[in-house]
Inverse folding.
């Protein structure tokens, strides 16, 4: 057998092996859907399916794309001083809410964007991309950030007109409370706290310290505001 023929056979074999490997990769990606994506994204999976009017295939294509873009992201840990600094700022936001709900919500929105960037997510100036990355790793709580951001933008649009009544304030209060879950995830010192156990769709709270829990207690959000004259 000539040397040229041997080389040709080797090349053909390499092409066949490469083709088979590619097919396995594509097939493996196709199996990411369904229960696997549901476990990964939690409530975000249901929200995305609803966004596509029940078209599960279209929703899973989007979620798979997010997973491929951001699945390998590794969160940068916060040191103790950083964690305390963010905790103090969130507490100040909650206290500010008593007198200025809209400003407090806007502050919380900026704070969450800054915190996510500090943990290694895309910068807050690229909100859509940051949200997509957060949904891959914090699917159980990312909706709270989304709701807070909408409230902050709506408040910026009609700030000149005031809050417009108790209903608006209550909606802002609810948005801030819901967003706190993501804040707690991002400031947690326990790796993997945000991930839900397989098959549950809900995260299991770790045995956090009492002092840490008290630092996030939204006491200010429940205080009665004085009536305006």
């Amino acid at each position: 057998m000539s040397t040229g023929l041997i080389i040709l056979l080797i090349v053909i074999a390499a092409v066949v092996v490469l083709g088979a490997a590619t097919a396995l990769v594509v097939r493996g990606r196709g199996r990411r859907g369904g229960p696997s994506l549901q476990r990964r994204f939690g409530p975000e999976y249901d929200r995305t399916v609803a966004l596509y009017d029940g078209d599960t295939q279209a929703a899973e294509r989007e979620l798979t794309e997010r997973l491929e873009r951001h699945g390998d992201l590794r969160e940068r840990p916060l040191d103790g001083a950083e964690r305390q600094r963010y905790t103090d700022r969130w507490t100040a936001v909650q206290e500010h809410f008593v007198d200025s709900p809209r400003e407090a919500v806007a502050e919380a929105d900026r704070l969450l964007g800054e915190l996510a960037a500090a943990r290694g997510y895309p910068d807050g100036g690229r909100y859509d991309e940051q949200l997509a990355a957060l949904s891959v790793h914090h699917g159980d709580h990312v909706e709270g950030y989304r709701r807070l951001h909408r409230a902050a933008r709506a408040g910026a649009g009609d700030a000149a007109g005031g809050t417009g009544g108790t209903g608006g304030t209550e909606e802002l209060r609810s948005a801030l409370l819901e967003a706190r879950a993501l804040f707690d995830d991002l400031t947690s010192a326990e790796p993997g706290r945000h991930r839900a156990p397989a098959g549950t769709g809900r995260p299991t709270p770790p045995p956090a310290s009492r002092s840490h829990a008290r630092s996030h207690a939204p006491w200010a959000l429940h205080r009665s505001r004085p009536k305006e004259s």
